[in-house]
Amino acid sequence: MTFVVFVVGLVLVGGLLFLGASLLLGRGETQPPAELDRSPVELPDDRPVTGDDVRALQVSVTVRGYRMTEVDWLLEQLAQTIDERDVEIAQLRAAQPAEDPAVDDEEDPGA
User: Fold this and answer.
1) Fewer CB in a 10 Å sphere around the end CB: N or C, the chain?
2) Distances (CA, A) of 42 to 29, 34, 50, 60
C-alpha cells in the first residue's frame, strides 16, 4: 500500500512540476514568429547594394541559429563579389564610347 501511495505521489509531483514549467516557459520559442512581409535585415531600396552594405548586415542569433563564422565568411564572399561586379561595371561603362545623339536609328543598317 505504501508503494502505491509513493508512486501516485511521485507521478502527481512530476505532473505538477511539468505543468508549472510548461506555463512558465511557454511553447519553448525564444522569440515570436517573424512577420512574413518584413525581414530584420535591411538593405537600401534607394540605391544599388554595395559590398559595405553586405558587410554591415547583422543576422540575429537564436538557440538553434547558425554558425557565425560560416555566415560571416559567406557575407564577406558576397561583399567581395559585389565589389568586383561594381568595378567591372564601372570599367565597362568607362570603355563604352559615348553615343552620338546626331545618329538616327533609321540610318543605322544594324538596327
Assistant:
1) N
2) 24, 14, 13, 12
